[in-house]
Amino acid sequence: MNFSTVAIKHLITATSLEELETKIVADIKKLTGAREVTIELTDNEKHQTNNPATFVLNYQGKQLGFITLSAVKLTHEQKETLEIYSSLVGIVVQSLQHKAFLSYASHEIRNPLTSISGYIQLIDRKLAKKESVNPRWVKALLQEVNRLDLLVKALLSQSV
Q1: Pick from 68, 53, 61: nearest CA to 21
Q2: Could you tell me how far CA 84 lies from the centroid of its own chain?
Q3: Tens digits of pLDDT across the chain (160 residues)
Q4: Is the separation of the CB atoms in 29 and 2 below 8 Å?
Q5: Which long-range contacts (C-beta less than 8 Å, at least 24 apart) are formed by 46-53?
Q6: CATH fold of 3-99, please?
Q7: Nearest-CA neighbor of 82 among 91, 69, 63?
Q8: Do the beta carbons of residue 81 and residue 50 sit within 8 Å?
Q9: How far apart are CA 122 and CA 136, in angstroms?
Q10: In sequence order, which residues have a C-beta less than 8 Å from that of residue 89 and are 6 or more positions away?
């Protein structure tokens, strides 16, 4: 298999940013013979480098970071390959960041939903037995609803 095939396979099978970084470093070292490869994920557009062996990671015009090789002289073909590779890496980084965000957001939303469900079941049982409902349960239920409302508003503000 050629570099592109192996590299693309590595990119699409990565399940975390850490795993992706390990695969990128190994792939680039193998392609170029570079002794050191650094990956910096940053959206700092002012980041400047004079190193001709630095490749910008972009996704839909948004800068995600850089891949920098040191102590290596690249051929024209290697530079072209790495420019394409860095574009692919940008897509994968964005995808992994998106998955991580969704995982975190869904976890944060599930917590208040679980509490709300528990309090509603408790209140329902008490009402079915014609027993009084503890006012603390209703207060806790309202707090969880407010927390969920804030989380959803924050999530929606991020999507705009």
Answers
A1: 68
A2: 21
A3: 566 677 777 777 878 878 888 888 888 888 788 778 887 776 655 555 566 677 777 777 677 777 777 767 778 888 888 888 787 888 888 888 888 888 888 888 888 999 999 999 999 999 999 999 899 999 999 999 998 988 888 887 776 5
A4: no
A5: none
A6: Beta-Lactamase (3.30.450)
A7: 69
A8: no
A9: 12
A10: 11, 20, 24, 57, 67
User: Which tokens is 122 given?
Assistant: 């408790």
Q: Name the residue type at position 28.
A: I
Q: Is 80 left (phi over 0), alpha (psi -120 to 50) or beta?
A: alpha
Tokens of 8: 């693309």
Closest CA to 87 of 66, 101, 70, 71: 66
Cβ contact 14:20 at 8 Å: yes
102-159: in CATH 1.10.287: yes
**Quick check: do 3-99 and 102-159 share a fold?**
no
Residue spans of the domains in the chain: they are 3-99, 102-159
Half-sphere exposure at residue 140, Cβ-oriented, CA atoms within 13 angstroms? 16
Q: What single string gives the DSSP state of each residue in 29-75? A: HHHH--SEEEEEE---TT-----TTEEEEEETTEEEEEEEEES----
